[in-house]
Write a structure and sequence with these properties.
By secondary structure, this protein is of the alpha+beta class. Helix content is 19%, strand content 24%. It contains 6 helices and 12 strands.
């Protein structure tokens, strides 16, 4: 792909605006050599205003979503795209969240501009578990592991029981859950079904990929090793 089209697709501007960047000498290679609009160069070698080029199409990134942000482009409040470079809103293909975390849930959020990859991650066939840590309003009853792992728990207004979920008590009012499906507000509704209420909810892992030490509001692109770990569901469970 010619560089002028690549930069436009990455959100650096319209084709006309990007062409002007080339004429002004703002696009170079890693050695500072000026590049031209019709050049075809490995994206990793390109610099814009001496800064590395944004990740090429096929991007998969991990974001540590803080509380108070929504997974939307239209919400009037704070949205997860506010935490990314402004150009990322203009990328073509569009950068989408892989599933959602609600405003009151923090933790690992994946985003990609690869539609096939997005569907592979969220597909039930992939069987990628999601790991959450919940802080509760009341003490645990003691039978949550049996109830959540039974495969018979029915949520209010639903007609199909939940798949068995993993459960580990981390404290009197803290628990770790491993889910193998993604129903609407599932963790909160599960605890409501046993008479409790979630005070805080944090997602730490999707598949085999864990949030690790990524700070709230920070993001990083996933490399091939990360992607392999993501689809190795048993990597760190």
């Amino acid at each position: 792909m010619k560089l002028v089209k690549l930069l436009a697709n990455l959100g650096y501007g319209s084709r006309k605006q990007v062409a002007l960047m080339f004429r002004e000498g703002r696009v170079t290679d890693a050695d500072g050599e000026v590049l031209y609009a019709d050049d075809v160069v490995e994206p990793a070698l390109v610099r814009v205003d001496d800064e590395p080029l944004d990740p090429a199409p096929g991007l998969l990134l991990a974001l540590h979503k803080p509380l108070g942000y929504t997974c939307s482009t239209k919400d009037p409040g704070r949205v997860v795209y506010d935490l990314l470079p402004p150009r990322f809103r203009l990328r073509n293909p569009v950068l989408s969240t892989v599933g959602r975390l609600d405003r009151d849930t923090s933790g690992l959020l994946l985003m990609t501009d690869d539609g096939a990859l997005l569907h592979r991650i969220i597909s039930p066939k992939s069987k990628l578990p999601k790991v959450y840590e919940a802080t509760l309003v009341q003490d645990l009853r003691g039978d949550e592991a049996a109830v959540f792992g039974s495969g018979t728990l029915m949520l209010e207004s639903e007609t199909t029981p939940l798949a068995p979920a993993g459960f580990e008590a981390l404290g009197p009012r803290q628990a770790r859950l491993v889910l193998h499906e993604g129903r609407y507000h599932q963790v909160r509704r599960m605890f409501a079904a046993v008479g409790n209420h979630v005070e805080a909810l944090h997602r730490t892992q999707v598949g085999g990929f864990a949030l690790g030490d990524l700070a709230p509001g920070q993001w990083r692109a996933l490399d091939e090793a990360d992607r392999a770990t993501l689809f190795d569901a048993d990597a760190s469970l």
